[in-house]
């Protein structure tokens, strides 16, 4: 028992805790080991240590079972159980029987220097496993120690730690009723405060901006800010976002454009360049085959003229002699091509007449710079200005308009942006979560955003990059996200955002409202019919002129 007072034992215990990455420890030391506590507390600095009294070493050597109160003190302790015992001649089998109720406990025998670990219900392997030795020269743990015990909330405790944070009431121009996601984050931090045993203190700040809050976290005045912040690359240089709780998309919002129904002359399957070439080729093939198949023979015959050949072929199929059968085949192919072309065009025309589509005012985001009659802007202190200045990708090229962006007047209220976007030709850049939070079970802003995004970032609660508690925050956020607790916290204050459709629907869809076809929508069909009639009259006139000149 004299070995328990040596500082080497303290160093071994501290190194064990550091090697296994424990955040807190429930330590059971034998009676009379008061001299062990002071150097041990110094060795495991920045970690929580909870001390209780272990049974006498003589009773442990005799195979006695730990008392019920001692078992409860260790099993229900606020940290990983660590027992420092002097085991005299106790075998691993007797040790397994002794420590069966303490799943996942670490046992250090100060007499032999052996380090044991008891299995938990989720572990695979023997009930007691020897990890290695811990002597005066240091810790020697085996590389093959099996699967580690699952990390529990007791490993994430931030004992005797005060977290100074900015609350949602500290920020100016922030509506509590509209920032439902911020309220969900506040509930999450309160839940973690009760689970991780830290004390959350909100700073007494009023009318603070987001930039001031991030600067306070950077210089150490505050630990965090209870609000969602985008993990942009410039912020990642001095801030740490432990776990992304969701995605934020910076989009271009504008008023919902009305759906229109168009029936152009070359619509449907002939809208593209390839379709137009196909239509022109089929038309020329039809004209050529019809002319070759129905032109009159030089020796006379039943097909003396173009009009007579068409009439004979339509009524009796006598447009050609057996020796000129290829003319009949050519005429059939021409008629089939004409029929398919007419059917295809009719189907495309009807599909466009009976459907509607939303036409965007901007084909790409940078078209907003030169759009006639349109104004655009962005919300101050939202980070959009830096994104616009450094954006140079195709379709989002704002880098050449730095002067106009820097001098762009912007509003400081999200509600004023939404109201102006609904009533005027005004477009603005903002994140989709902030606009979607304005929706409730009855109404939603009459806005939609362009399918092309300016940027996309993850959001989370920020901390300093060199904060030693960042790994614990990461595991805590991950645990809340995996177990569905974070989703339930969001549903307390927010509507189901999955049902909110703010993206502009640019796909063709059936007409939602009944309306008779107007004359303007039939112009394409009339143009095609008149063009075909004019072409037929032209062929007939040319045949008559050729026949008159030949007769003379």
TrEMBL record:
Protein name as annotated: Glutamate receptor ionotropic, delta-1
Q: Does the keyword Transmembrane apply?
A: yes
- Annotated localization: Cell membrane
Query: Mainly resides where?
Result: membrane
Bilayer topology term: Multi-pass membrane protein
Species of origin: Amphibalanus amphitrite
Q: Where are the transmembrane segments?
A: 523-546
Report one GO cellular component: plasma membrane
Spell out the SUPFAM superfamilies in the cross-references: Periplasmic binding protein-like II
Q: Which domain of life is it from?
A: Eukaryota
InterPro entries associated with the record: Insect_Ionotropic_Sensory_Rcpt (IPR052192)
Q: Which UniProt keywords apply?
A: Cell membrane, Glycoprotein, Membrane, Receptor, Transmembrane, Transmembrane helix
